[in-house]
Amino acid sequence: MKILPAVFIAALLNVLLASLVGKIGIPLYMDSLFSMVVTVSFGLLPGLATAVLTNGILALTSQTLFPFVICHILTVMIAAFMKKRDFLKNVTGFLWLGLFAALINGVVGSVISFYLFSGVTKVHGIDKLVMGLIVTGRSFVTALFWAGMISNILDKVFSALVSYAILQHPLLNKGTRKGNNPLDQIN
Fold first, then answer.
1. Angle formed by the axes of helices 140-167 and 126-135, to 10°?
2. φ/ψ (deg, to 5) at 3
3. Per residue in 147-164, pLDDT tens?
4. What's the CA gap between 180 and 24, in Å, rounded?
5. CA-CA distances (angstroms) from residue 46 to 1, 43, 62?
6. Where do the H-state alpha helices sit in 25-139?
Protein backbone atom coordinates (compact mmCIF):
# COMPACT_ATOMS: atom_id res chain seq x y z
CA MET A 1 0.00 0.00 0.00
CA LYS A 2 1.28 3.44 -0.85
CA ILE A 3 1.77 5.96 1.94
CA LEU A 4 -0.49 8.80 0.75
CA PRO A 5 -3.59 6.64 0.25
CA ALA A 6 -2.88 5.00 3.62
CA VAL A 7 -2.82 8.43 5.30
CA PHE A 8 -6.16 9.44 3.76
CA ILE A 9 -7.84 6.10 4.47
CA ALA A 10 -6.54 6.06 8.05
CA ALA A 11 -7.74 9.63 8.66
CA LEU A 12 -11.19 8.79 7.30
CA LEU A 13 -11.38 5.64 9.45
CA ASN A 14 -10.33 7.71 12.49
CA VAL A 15 -13.07 10.24 11.71
CA LEU A 16 -15.61 7.46 11.25
CA LEU A 17 -14.75 5.87 14.62
CA ALA A 18 -14.67 9.22 16.43
CA SER A 19 -18.01 10.18 14.89
CA LEU A 20 -19.56 6.87 15.88
CA VAL A 21 -18.55 7.08 19.54
CA GLY A 22 -19.55 10.75 19.57
CA LYS A 23 -23.03 9.94 18.27
CA ILE A 24 -23.45 7.16 20.81
CA GLY A 25 -22.19 9.45 23.58
CA ILE A 26 -19.39 7.21 24.83
CA PRO A 27 -16.75 9.30 26.64
CA LEU A 28 -13.91 8.19 24.38
CA TYR A 29 -12.14 9.84 21.45
CA MET A 30 -11.33 6.97 19.07
CA ASP A 31 -9.47 9.37 16.79
CA SER A 32 -5.97 7.92 16.91
CA LEU A 33 -6.27 4.16 16.33
CA PHE A 34 -5.38 4.30 12.64
CA SER A 35 -2.82 7.04 13.24
CA MET A 36 -0.96 4.49 15.37
CA VAL A 37 -1.17 1.93 12.55
CA VAL A 38 0.15 4.43 9.98
CA THR A 39 2.94 5.60 12.29
CA VAL A 40 4.15 2.08 13.05
CA SER A 41 3.84 1.06 9.39
CA PHE A 42 5.23 4.13 7.61
CA GLY A 43 6.94 6.38 10.15
CA LEU A 44 6.59 9.68 11.95
CA LEU A 45 5.73 12.02 9.07
CA PRO A 46 2.85 9.95 7.66
CA GLY A 47 1.60 9.49 11.22
CA LEU A 48 1.69 13.25 11.80
CA ALA A 49 -0.12 13.84 8.51
CA THR A 50 -2.81 11.36 9.57
CA ALA A 51 -3.18 13.04 12.97
CA VAL A 52 -3.47 16.57 11.58
CA LEU A 53 -5.85 15.51 8.79
CA THR A 54 -8.02 13.58 11.25
CA ASN A 55 -8.26 16.48 13.69
CA GLY A 56 -8.76 18.98 10.89
CA ILE A 57 -11.77 17.07 9.58
CA LEU A 58 -13.15 16.54 13.08
CA ALA A 59 -12.75 20.25 13.87
CA LEU A 60 -14.41 21.30 10.61
CA THR A 61 -17.37 19.04 11.42
CA SER A 62 -17.56 20.36 15.03
CA GLN A 63 -16.61 17.01 16.53
CA THR A 64 -13.49 18.26 18.29
CA LEU A 65 -11.67 21.47 18.97
CA PHE A 66 -8.53 21.85 16.87
CA PRO A 67 -6.10 22.64 19.73
CA PHE A 68 -6.50 19.01 20.81
CA VAL A 69 -4.45 18.10 17.72
CA ILE A 70 -1.51 18.55 20.11
CA CYS A 71 -2.63 15.39 21.94
CA HIS A 72 -2.92 13.47 18.70
CA ILE A 73 0.55 14.64 17.62
CA LEU A 74 1.98 13.50 20.96
CA THR A 75 0.40 10.07 20.50
CA VAL A 76 2.05 9.75 17.08
CA MET A 77 5.40 10.92 18.44
CA ILE A 78 5.25 8.35 21.24
CA ALA A 79 4.40 5.59 18.73
CA ALA A 80 7.25 6.63 16.43
CA PHE A 81 9.73 6.79 19.33
CA MET A 82 8.68 3.38 20.63
CA LYS A 83 8.88 1.86 17.14
CA LYS A 84 12.34 3.33 16.57
CA ARG A 85 13.54 1.92 19.90
CA ASP A 86 12.10 -1.52 19.03
CA PHE A 87 9.55 -1.51 21.84
CA LEU A 88 6.65 -2.46 19.55
CA LYS A 89 7.58 -6.04 18.73
CA ASN A 90 4.73 -7.64 20.66
CA VAL A 91 1.40 -6.97 22.32
CA THR A 92 3.11 -5.90 25.56
CA GLY A 93 4.90 -3.11 23.71
CA PHE A 94 1.61 -1.91 22.27
CA LEU A 95 0.03 -2.03 25.72
CA TRP A 96 2.81 0.27 26.96
CA LEU A 97 2.26 2.52 23.94
CA GLY A 98 -1.38 2.87 24.95
CA LEU A 99 -0.51 3.58 28.57
CA PHE A 100 2.19 6.16 27.79
CA ALA A 101 -0.04 7.91 25.25
CA ALA A 102 -2.92 7.89 27.74
CA LEU A 103 -0.88 9.45 30.53
CA ILE A 104 0.57 12.18 28.31
CA ASN A 105 -2.78 12.89 26.65
CA GLY A 106 -4.61 12.88 29.97
CA VAL A 107 -2.37 15.59 31.36
CA VAL A 108 -1.98 17.69 28.20
CA GLY A 109 -5.65 17.37 27.23
CA SER A 110 -6.76 18.45 30.69
CA VAL A 111 -4.48 21.49 30.54
CA ILE A 112 -5.77 22.45 27.09
CA SER A 113 -9.36 21.94 28.19
CA PHE A 114 -8.93 23.99 31.37
CA TYR A 115 -6.91 26.90 30.02
CA LEU A 116 -8.38 27.28 26.54
CA PHE A 117 -11.98 26.20 27.13
CA SER A 118 -12.56 26.65 30.87
CA GLY A 119 -12.90 22.89 31.11
CA VAL A 120 -16.02 22.62 28.94
CA THR A 121 -15.51 21.37 25.39
CA LYS A 122 -19.12 20.48 24.47
CA VAL A 123 -17.94 18.03 21.84
CA HIS A 124 -17.40 14.75 23.68
CA GLY A 125 -19.12 12.70 26.30
CA ILE A 126 -16.12 13.67 28.45
CA ASP A 127 -18.01 16.70 29.78
CA LYS A 128 -20.63 14.30 31.17
CA LEU A 129 -17.91 12.30 32.87
CA VAL A 130 -16.54 15.52 34.42
CA MET A 131 -20.01 16.40 35.72
CA GLY A 132 -20.46 12.90 37.09
CA LEU A 133 -17.22 13.21 39.06
CA ILE A 134 -18.24 16.63 40.37
CA VAL A 135 -21.49 15.13 41.65
CA THR A 136 -19.42 12.69 43.71
CA GLY A 137 -17.82 15.62 45.52
CA ARG A 138 -14.69 16.18 43.44
CA SER A 139 -13.53 19.71 42.71
CA PHE A 140 -13.88 20.90 39.12
CA VAL A 141 -10.12 20.72 38.44
CA THR A 142 -9.86 17.24 39.98
CA ALA A 143 -12.89 16.03 38.04
CA LEU A 144 -11.50 17.47 34.79
CA PHE A 145 -8.13 15.79 35.33
CA TRP A 146 -9.53 12.37 36.27
CA ALA A 147 -12.13 12.39 33.51
CA GLY A 148 -9.31 13.03 31.04
CA MET A 149 -7.15 10.31 32.55
CA ILE A 150 -9.91 7.69 32.70
CA SER A 151 -11.13 8.34 29.17
CA ASN A 152 -7.60 8.42 27.77
CA ILE A 153 -6.55 5.19 29.45
CA LEU A 154 -9.56 3.38 28.02
CA ASP A 155 -9.24 5.05 24.62
CA LYS A 156 -5.50 4.83 24.02
CA VAL A 157 -4.98 1.33 25.43
CA PHE A 158 -7.88 0.04 23.32
CA SER A 159 -6.53 1.86 20.25
CA ALA A 160 -3.02 0.51 20.75
CA LEU A 161 -4.19 -3.07 21.24
CA VAL A 162 -6.46 -2.93 18.18
CA SER A 163 -3.56 -1.38 16.22
CA TYR A 164 -1.45 -4.38 17.18
CA ALA A 165 -4.21 -6.74 16.05
CA ILE A 166 -4.58 -4.92 12.72
CA LEU A 167 -0.84 -5.10 12.10
CA GLN A 168 -0.97 -8.88 12.71
CA HIS A 169 -3.58 -9.43 9.98
CA PRO A 170 -2.44 -11.91 7.31
CA LEU A 171 -3.18 -9.47 4.46
CA LEU A 172 -0.60 -7.09 5.88
CA ASN A 173 1.92 -9.93 6.18
CA LYS A 174 1.72 -10.73 2.47
CA GLY A 175 4.96 -9.87 0.71
CA THR A 176 7.06 -9.04 3.76
CA ARG A 177 10.66 -10.22 3.78
CA LYS A 178 10.30 -12.49 6.78
CA GLY A 179 6.70 -13.31 5.96
CA ASN A 180 5.38 -13.64 9.48
CA ASN A 181 4.93 -10.12 10.83
CA PRO A 182 4.60 -6.70 9.18
CA LEU A 183 6.49 -5.21 12.11
CA ASP A 184 9.60 -7.14 11.01
CA GLN A 185 9.54 -5.25 7.70
CA ILE A 186 9.25 -1.73 9.07
CA ASN A 187 12.37 0.38 9.50
1. 140
2. -70, -50
3. 999 999 999 999 999 999
4. 37
5. 13, 6, 24
6. 33-42, 44-60, 69-84, 91-117, 126-135
